[in-house]
Amino acid sequence: MAEERRVMLITGAAGGIGRATVQVFAQTGWRVIGVDRASYGESFPPDGFFIQADISQNDQVHSIYEQARRFTDRLDAVINNAALQIAKPLLETTIEEWDLVMASNLRSVFLGAKLGHPLLRSAGGAIVNVSSVHAV
User: Fold this and answer.
1) Dihedral through CA 24, CA 128, CA 31, CA 66, nearest 10?
2) How do 49-52 and 7-11 pair as beta strands?
3) 34 with 14: CB under 8 angstroms?
4) Cα–Cα distance, 14 to 83 (Å, whole number)
5) pLDDT value at residue 79
6) Which residues make Cβ contacts (< 8 Å) with residue 26, sequence separation at least 6?
7) Euclidean distance between CA atoms 32 and 20, whole angstroms
8) Is 92 within 8 Å of 22 (Cβ atoms)?
9) pLDDT of 1 higher than 60
10) pLDDT over threshold 70, residue 136
11) Which residues are CB-contacts of 56 (< 8 A; sequence separation ≥ 6)?
């Protein structure tokens, strides 16, 4: 019996580190579910699944995991890579900007862990939270 291929979900899949991560995992045999607000383009792995969504929106995070459950019955990894940075002085930052950063960078991670738990548990999967020098 052939071993079932591992599956990962990554947010922020369309750019930079996310795009490179998609390619590395796909090249090493993983099936990839990519999520990003931006379009990925035509080069997404053909056996993967790309979801264009805004993780700062609760309903869209719910939709991401509903779609993931239709695509697979397991997640071996969730990589929280998407982040929003608003680089301006505190006194110039609006409450709306603050809320958007918190929704994108924190609440989406919480919701992803909560909603992805059944799929992660079935595979003994892991969550990886990516950060940057801007977080410190």
Assistant:
1) -150
2) unpaired
3) yes
4) 12
5) 97
6) 32, 45, 47, 48
7) 12
8) no
9) no
10) no
11) 84, 100, 103, 104, 107, 108
The answer for residues whose C-beta is within 8 angstroms of residue 37's C-beta and 6 or more apart is 14, 52, 53, 54, 55, 82
Cα 34–chain centre separation: 7
Q: Are 91 and 47 in contact (CB under 8 A)?
A: no
What b/e string do you get for 109-120 counting C-beta neighbours within 10 Å, with b at 16 or more? bebbeebbeebb
Per residue in 39-84, pLDDT (tens digit) is 999 899 999 999 999 999 999 999 999 999 999 999 999 999 999 9
- DSSP result, 67-117: HHHHH-S--SEEEE-------S-GGG--HHHHHHHHIIIIIHHHHHHHHHH
Q: Which residue has the tokens 């609006």?
A: 94
